Description:
4-stranded mixed β-sheet; alpha+beta; globular
Amino acid sequence: MRRVSLDAARRIALGAQGFGQAAPVGRVDVRHFRRVMNRIGLVQLDSVNVCVRTHYMPFYSRLGPYDPAALDTWLNNSGEHFEYWAHEAAVLPVEHYPLWRWKMERMRPWRRAEALLEAHPELLDDVLRQVRENGPLTVRDLDAPAARTEAWWGYGPGKVALEVLFANGKISALRTGNFGREYDLPERLLPAAVIATDALGEEEAHRELLVTATKHHGIGTLHDIADYFRLNVPISRPIVESLASEGRIIEVEVPGWKGPVYMDPDAVRPRGISGTTLLSPFDPVVWYRERTERLFGFRYRIEIYVPEPDRVFGYYVLPLMVDGALVGRVDLKADRKNRALLVQSAFREEGADSSVVSSALACELERFAGWLGLGTIEPGSKGNVMAELRKEM
Length: 393
């Protein structure tokens, strides 16, 4: 069995995610956005906007500064994408729509939502009718009960109905300028050829999704690969084994990793990874924390839901990657009113050189703040590299 060193595995993983290719020189356009989407396969969405919404970050990390409005136009208006519950809420290439029909057909209302719908049996049909007749629409456009409920995150009944219909594939959605969902029928949002494509059965869809996940990861364990699209591990295990026996993926060994480990047969191992960038907490490189620790020796936990006195690093911490290594982390907040980037904490990893980290971080913060249109950077006082960072800046 082929043996892959940890250093090689790291370069394979980063190469698969597009970090082995130099950022473009000059204006970033749709061609570059497509290049990133082809590498990562989906863009996770998240409502937190303390610094910048997470779906902008994977493109920034791989391409450098670009116009976020141009990305929004491409994601929402090009007809090349759809939104669904893949890893989490995510934007995916529209040609993958048939791969998710099995999940749409299997989705059932959440327990509390089910109780709400049992109490209002006409609600789903009524909301679907309104979308059909009046879509695209937002929850505010609905003629439906507006009272808040405990059915799901305090949503009103109309919003619960929209989300159940969305999960079932009865309706689809795009994001509005304020990041809310705007709902419409799939046949009005997606290309006719995609709608007409037969849905794949559950096992065949799993096969294709697992092969695709291996391609995007480059290399990973069964759990790594299944997590990419949040597929069930026991269901995925025999399918992955079958794919390996067919040669669609290959089994390898990585020292220190509990097997089995699988690799994309076409994976490229870059000679090196160069450059400095910040990563989103929801970038595919770091979103499965166990894999991040195995690959980079970087223990990463998001502390948004940790009470402030108990936070170690900060509320919204972004990893700092320098030449393919995760060497630091920084808690950032955009003070848009005062056009300032607040650096609330800055840490280097154990063993990382303080001067290297502080210099790289200072340059990256200048670039990052400029991309966000923030005129000043205000370092705080927390963190083992903050003093050096303040000197650099």
